[in-house]
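Hi C.,

You asked whether I'd gotten around to modeling the 953-residue construct. I have! Everything is below, sequence then structure, no commentary in between.
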Amino acid sequence: MLCFIFIHPSIHLQGSNYKPPTMVKANPSLLLQSFFFFFLLPCLSSSCPEYQKQALLQFKSSILAIDSSFHTLDSWNSSSSNCCLWDKVTCSSPSNSNSTSTPSVVIGLNLSYLSAPLMSSNLLAPLFFIRSLRVLDFSNNFMKGQIPAPGFSNLSNLVHLDLSSNSINEIPALGFGNLSNLVHLDLSSNFINEIPALGFGNLINLVHLDLSWNFMKGQIPALGFGNLSNLVHLNLNWNNINSQIPALEFVNLSNLAHLDLSRNFIYGQIPLQLFQLKYLQYLDLGYNELQGGLSPKLGYLQDLRMLNLSSNCLSGELPEEIGNLTKLQQLSLSSNKISNGIPSSILHLRELEELDLGKNSLSMEIPSDIGNLSNLSSLSLGKNKLTGGVPASMQKLNKLNLLDLKGNLLTGEIPFWLFDFKDLQYLYLGGNNLTWNNNMKVVPKCRLLGLSLRSCGLQGDIPEWISTQTNLYFLDLSMNQLHGPLPQWLSEFQTLLALILSHNKLSGSLTTTLLRSSQYLSILALSHNNFSGELPKNIGDAWPLSFLLLDGNNFSGPIPQSISQFFFLQFLDLSHNRLSGNIFPVFDRQLFLFYADFSSNQFSGEVPTTFPPNINTLALGGNKFSGALPLNLKKLRNLERLELQDNNISGELAKSLLQISHLRVLNLRNNSLQGSIPKTLSNLQNLRILDLSSNNLTGEIPIEFVNNLTGMIEALPNPTSQTPDFPAAVSFSSSPIFKTEFVRNELIVNWKKYKQGLSSHYIDMYFLLDLSNNQLSSEIPVSLGALKALKMLNLSFNKLFGKIPASLGDLQNVEGLDLSHNKLSGPIPIAFTKLQQLTTLDVSNNKLIGRIPVGGQMNTIVDPNFYANNSGLCGFQIRVPCPGDRPPAPKLQEHYNKKEPWILLEAMGIGYPVGFLLTIGIIFLAGYFNPSPLSNSRRRHCHHPLRLIKQRI
């Protein structure tokens, strides 16, 4: 039996190291109200009313009707007259006065974790008769359905309601009726699909509201929270809310201390009104789509302890006013587009314990006095553009537990005092221009769990001092100059989760000892080294492996059958080795395998299909596979990328391919396929890259095949999105502290006359159709012009005839168009001048005639080789004039040169008489001409007329 109840709407911050304040600076009356029930409910002894007892028994009976083995409420029985003595029931104290006596009534029910089967919300109906209820906790059950609003409207005295961790899917449109006394409401971890239109505006005394971990979509309603002026704690994280932050609504929440809107789809700018919430201590807007810059008014939130704006699209500079948040303990602005330098005012945040500015575009140097933030335990500045060295003042960060500087432009020697921090557990320095002093001896005082020295200039053997770090979970020494075999002491790391040694010069064989060393080993990346020999037959003993990358070595022999025992395997890359054999392991159908690359080896036999049906990418190119395409390919129904190029595959295009409807990339280049292109290939509507070049395909290009390739008709609106629907890489994160990413290999295609690798990071940007080097003989379908997303179209080296359709001028995104070595006739369509993206056009070796179009990009394609061996082309691009062209006009200088003698004679004949008359007129008008005889004095001043004119001029 509960003796008392304690309700406190305190602020429970979720930050890992955040220390909640002892008291919230909110309305004092709210705090008094929250402690009221602590003193109100002492141990009870009088009986509860009979009708309340019967209501509770009816509730229990409803559960027993579903599950007769239910025993959680065994103390609830009719033989006990006082329900106040039952488990999970709390009653009020009886009161006595001179005139009246008030019996005990039920005011609290703690019915969480009843361990009952899935229940309907209708089972709560008997409880709605207990109108004296003030506290109801029905959390962590399996209750489903809608919240019964009419029933709850009876419980007008309810102060605390917890329905979290159930399966509730809807809140009534009118919310919770007249529960105006409610102080604490928790509906988190349900399946509620939207916030009711009227929100919770009638719950005017609400202090704590938690709607997190639901499926609420749409907007935050305009009337949803505006009346909740007493609200202190509001949590809406982990939903699907897609709206801006309603500025006018939140500005009324003047007592708000905890606001969490993280992990939604909230967009727009952060409203300035939010910075007027002067009591705000916890603000989490991370993992949304917020844009714009950070306002200097952020500095108004001087009581803030935790600020998380990570994983948005915020840009601009960090305002200097961020230094006004002197009580801040956690600050995360990672994964945005924030630029320029780290402001010096950040050094005012002396209470700061966690600082994360990683994955931005920050430049300039790390503040030299960053070591003055003496309370820092976690400092993450990785993946920016920071320059300079590691500041010496960091030596003062004695509490440092995590230091992440990876992926910057830092220079200089790695300071060895970094290994003197006794509490340091995670050190990530890789991907900079830092250098390691291979002559210095390191004696670490720390016990590292994570270490990255990728691309730090390590030479020779793997450093011996690492052998002392036997608690390592994560070790990345890739892209260095390490050589020699793997040291034996690596096998003693029993907690190792990830070992990344790619891009070195390590040699020797892969030993079973290493694979068995850790029962947690999930990542083993040894790509691009000099390892050799056969793979261990019992490689499958390392069953926890999720990522196995052995590509770019000299491994030989068959693939061990035990590799199929990797039940958690997601990413497997054995490409570019000397592996051989014609029998592939049979992978379990339930395997999580996402990516498998066996390309550029010496495998033979039929194309293997013994992969789990959920595999996404399968690369088998550059081997010696032969025979027809197997029918079992259709079982790989989730394939999006299939690469079979550069093999000896024969026969016709199998119908089994046509049933893999998710295919986006299909590469069958350079095989021996025969027959025609099936019309039903158009069933692959998601295709973006189709390469059937260098085969023996015959017949026509089917019109139906073109019309339904919808994946090539429209380009993606934002192919560089950070969350592409065609994943370029697979991320691994065993904890939020360290994360790594494995990029899928490039796709090699013929691009603009050359073989090029298309980066998997931008695979959604490429749309390619290559049917070149076959025996296709038909006209080019007019419908090809509908594939407006195409960037590359190659139909060269076939037997295509007829005119080039003008519709190809509608390929608005095409960059390369190759129609060479066919039998095409007629003119080049004038519509080609509309192709604004065109940089390569080859129509050579056809029967084309007429003028090469002028205008647009056609004026830039002037290489005569692209037009060679046609019967009648002309135009300035090939320096061949067309019939009817006017001869070029003579140059202006030549015209004048031919006229020059005539001009001289004409000038002499006309110029002298005219000049003489003008001279006499000027002299006369100027008063220099006098008919009377000149005196001697006057004569002295007479000058030759030409001299006079020259002087006056």
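If it helps when you're writing up: The chain has nine helices and 64 strands.

Thanks,
B.
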